[in-house]
Amino acid sequence: MKINVVLRVGVVFFLVGLSLGIAAIPRSDRQITAGMTLHSIPPYGEVSSSFFSPPRDVRLEIECSHPINFYLFNSEGFEAYNESGVLNPIFYFENGSRGMYFISLPKRDIYYMVFRNLLNTTVSFNITMFFYGFEKDLLHMSMIFVVSGIVLIVLGAMDVSRFLLRFRKELMEIR
Amino acid sequence: MKSKRNFLTLILWEFEENFSFPVFEILIFVAVLFLIGFASQSMCPHGTSISLLDIVLSDYLEFSLTGCAFISMFFTGFLFARSIARRFSNKEMKMFLSYPVKRRSLLLSKFLVNFIVLYLLFGSVLVFDAVLMGFGVFSPLVGFTLLSLLISLMFLCSISMIVALLIKNEALSFFAVFFLIYGLEQYVSGLKEPYNACFSVSRGPTIITAYLLRSYYSGKVSLFSYITFKMFMLSLTFQISVTIVLMLISFVYFVYFLEVD
Amino acid sequence: MSTRIVYTKDLFKLFGNVVALDGLNLEVPKGICGFVGPNGSGKTTTINILLGLVKPDSGEAYVFGLDCWRNSYEIKRRVGVLHENPGYPMSFSAQRFLEYVARIYSVDKPRERALEMLKLVGLYDVRDRAIKGFSAGMLQRLGLAQALIGDPELVILDEPTANLDPSARLMFLEKVKEFHRDHGVNFLISTHILPELEKVCSWVSIIMNGVIVDQGYLSDLVSKYSANIYVVETSDPRLLAKELEKTGFVKDLWIEGDKIYCKISDLDSFQRNLPVIASKINVSIKNLQPQYSSLEEIYKEVVKRNEK
Predict the structure, then answer these.
(1) Residue A15 with chain B: CB contacts under 8 Å
(2) Model pTM?
């Protein structure tokens, strides 16, 4: 089988897809743990923090001295919240003081956590996040490359250009 | 005009031969797998004193750039061993030098093809890595990374080229590059600060990028605050001057002194 | 010599302690020329100097009147070369390789020229096959094609038939003759296989220990080394020898087997009178020829004389 350009491009696409898919494995293996310990929210106040994350699963563990409201925004939602106070979080709980929450982050973005204290006393809290699972966008990208690669490899192997040329010649002869 | 066409022919020939199937494909596979699979990932802030930008940037520089420098050592050694050393041992270089090609064009074509392909390969992967971390394609991180990659890759390519030219054996040349750079790293790590970082093949590019980023974001990030202007200049000057010296020696040797019997 | 295309004067080259060339004075005129010598005599070093691959330590070397080291680029535009055991880009097809070579020689239509050369050397049917799948004979033909593709005035062939079987060697040399006859291409062939070289070349340069020990047109060399010694193969050498001793035109003679070696002073008289003498004493002449009539014999004689 002659190695033509289409075949080579197909192999490149396939291998890029394969490598992205394989690369997703060690990346998913890393369970990143991060947190904020012994932070405090002033009376009737608000504290926010941000983190960047790929679309992974997160386990959130929160421990507070008093009940608080918690909102998790993506960057768009946080911008809207800042500008006009519109509450459109991707996750939230209200009047909670302790809990374990499982969230699936939808996309690669900066996420903002907003801790709101509705009481007249200072609230201290601990929050721990465990990131686990595959990065979904990486897997999707991998699949797209692999499938495109396979299609191009098949086309290249069939030597489509020659086939089309021969088909065109025959068509002209018929005419 | 004829010499320009000749040069282009040499470039195309070199690309087609040195990156014949499946060499190019395997290089892409390994580069993407290594640089994306074992690259940095975002970390959440542990407190509010360190900004998100700081964390992500330092993460990127620690993992991605350093990983890139490490893997490019193998790639440059392999490609120049294949492109230059092997051509001597299989007598292809003798055939080339018997054609009406200028020696400087021949060597330059080999250098450029390998350098450009590696630069595009690593550059794309590093840009992709930066995008995975939420930075835009035209962000300062990407710009300064590509600049630092240009300098460090030229540095590694010049070392690989001169080793391949002198050794003229593919396997020996590859291992010589590896051990030379590894040996350099070991030696440099024993120097006192800041020289142990500035003269390091893996940390040098990080210093250059970190300093430029800090200057750009002045005040916003306390990224690698220990990096001074002196360290930045040392790293930059070391890599650029070594590149220039080695390239000059390679070209002078190849054009005026090389004898092929 | 005004028609000489290669000329060296007192060429000297040292590799470490080894003297490769020791005052080489080579002359190569137009035509098909042989360059012969024992292993390690300096043939390849000479060729490398002519192509600007090696710089001589002293002396001069010119091709087409141009200095070999300073003007190597201009020389190479007019010269094609096939080295001994050359390296090819094995992943390329024959056609692709020749197209690239044609482009380097700035040929106008490289693709057409490559196909034309492939047809000429009989590799058209395998033009798309990767070079790594070629046999030794095919590689040599490919080598000839790449040497000729740039329309050179001189083609240098270093041991072109070393890896070939006898029929392939004959075919190769036929092609060489054809190119010289039809396109006027000059050849300089360095080889050990003298009987075949003799069939194609008109001029021979013999090198030993880095020095040209003799060179000239083949016919002149034959005359020179024969030294007027003729070999008579006969049915009764003793009887014929007795009669020849009485003549004035045979200075000396000796017998080896059924051959009489005659050193003659007058070739015309000898050739005229020998058959008469033989028929008088009823002796038949089976063969009459100069002592050294082949290149191989001349070469052996030259080597023997210079080894003393």
Answers:
(1) 25-26, 28-29, 32
(2) 0.85
